[in-house]
Amino acid sequence: MTAPSTATRSLKRRVRRQTTLQALPWLAPALILIGGVVVFPIGYMIYTSFRDLTRFGTDRGWAGLENYERVLELDHLSRVLSNTALWVVGVVALSVGLGLVLAQFLNKRFPGRKILRLVIIVPWAASVVMTSTVFVYGLDPFYGIINQFLVDVGILDTPYGFLKNALPGFLSAMAVAVFVSVPFTTFVFLAGLQTVPHDVLEAAQIDGASRVQTYWRVVFPMLRGALAVATIINVINVFNSLPILKTMTGAIPGYDADTTTSLMFKIIQNDRQIDTASALSVLNFIVVVVVIGVYLRVVRPMRED
Amino acid sequence: MSTVIDRPPTVTAVGGGVDRPPVHERRRWGLTVVGAVVATVFLAPYVIMLVGAFKTRPEILRVPPTYLPENWEPGNFLTMWDTPETPLPANLLSTVVISLGGTALALLAALPAAYYTARHNFRLKLPFMLLVLVTQMLQPTVLASGLFREFVTLEINDTWLAMILVNAAFNLSFAVWIMHSFFASVPKEIEEAAWLDGCSRSQSLRQIMLPLVWPGIVTAVIFTFIACWNEFAASLILLPTDTNQPLTVALTRFIGQYESAWQYVFAVSIIGILPVVALFALIEKHLVSGLTAGGVK
């Protein structure tokens, strides 16, 4: 190919600039919305994290790294960090594992499969706050119906105050988080399973592969994309999750059942320290950005087909 | 696109042969039993909710609890509106207004962007789609303090408008993405043929494109509406006044009270969940591709 002359090159450039200008009116509403309500708050949050704010929001000037120091000096910080790690790793691992099994099951043909698919949607569609309140009520040691059920079937001797103390409360919240995350995860794996071609499976069976072998050697490797998507999107959702902890363990005094996200909301709501909360949010935001980076590298979405 | 994907999605993976002898029939009914157990687990909380919505206040606080109401009390769905914990009629109105407003705004902004990016190539297309994708992975939760500061400065904090903007902005990307893929699946030639036949651009949009991409628009609208309907974290921070709060935030007021009016919590929840689940079921098959931006193939 010969190098294009400067004339055609500048013409091309002009055409390109023109098309970009033509695109602008079509993209402007979306760009304004993203710019004003997503990008700008990011900047404002970072700015606020270096300011000194009163409880009423008056800006008292530059604060340097004071807000960040205050976050790092919180005495419950190490507990909150280990909670956050447990929360994200535990909930995502269990959701992905259960989702994988459930998707495999739903991919089989049996009477009632379509109904089951619809049923599994319910926790996904329903408000997480509303789902969590059922567990707050059901796990109550006195009038809680789940507690009563556990006693009646012999799992517990007496009703247990699951949400009265930090550790059992936190673990119960994790169980509910798994419950509401499994549906989405399952559907991602179902979509992944549908890309497994039938003839490959037949070939494996003709070659004498057992069911287990076929799954681990043929099907599972083809689910790698779905696995990456399900894991990473769940990591972001679970890390950012507030409603379950707010409703289930929010009434437990102290910070022993908090993640960095729920702690940040307590700092905003209870302490009204927007500056400190902003510093913590910036740290949370960095975590999210890293996960998004991993997503873009690993999954490479938007591959043009 | 690899050849694999061109196959119709009817291919089943391991197991589940097409027409097999009765032995397999029996096994399939065995799977149905397992399926029923799974369904029970997933529905249990919502059954508790439904049953609880029909209990009287003394019964729902009784120790030990009853599984089924001794006296069914459908009146809860009427008396709950006067409950002292929170102004429920105002909360329902907030949820409806914010959801409708957020959905309308998201659609208005997403539709032209989705159409243009599907039809034209331009230099900033990839950066734009990348921005949309990254927005999808951000949530208002992590930006709550920034949003709060912004809306206080703009003096629209504690208004429906603030939450309409937040919901529209954070759900825009799903709408752009799903509608983009529908527009892109309509061959350009169809549109060009319409132009040759003397259709104007707006005519071809309305009469040719709209019917073809309608499922994508419906999916975008329903998904955005549900996301707005269920939003919690940003509303918690941005709407301090009880009459402005949506149902999700209002429900948290009941929790931690000495003798919570659980029967009302559940009656409200039933009203809050039923329509959303019905709508969700309609768009289920398009959801994964939209939520993962084509990441699963």
TrEMBL record, chain A:
Entries under InterPro entries matching the protein: MetI-like, MetI-like_sf, UgpAE/MalFG_permease
Annotated GO biological process: transmembrane transport
Parts of the chain that traverse the membrane: 21-47, 85-106, 118-139, 170-193, 214-239, 279-299
One GO CC term on file: plasma membrane
Membrane topology: Multi-pass membrane protein
Membrane in keyword set: yes
PROSITE patterns (alphabetical): ABC_TM1
Pfam family, one: BPD_transp_1
Keyword Membrane set for record: yes
Coiled-coil regions, chain positions: none
Location of the protein in the cell: Cell membrane
Residue intervals of the ABC transmembrane type-1 domain: 81-295
Family recorded in the similarity comment: Belongs to the binding-protein-dependent transport system permease family.
This protein's name: Sugar ABC transporter permease
Source species of the chain: Actinophytocola xanthii
Upper lineage: Bacteria, Bacillati, Actinomycetota, Actinomycetes, Pseudonocardiales
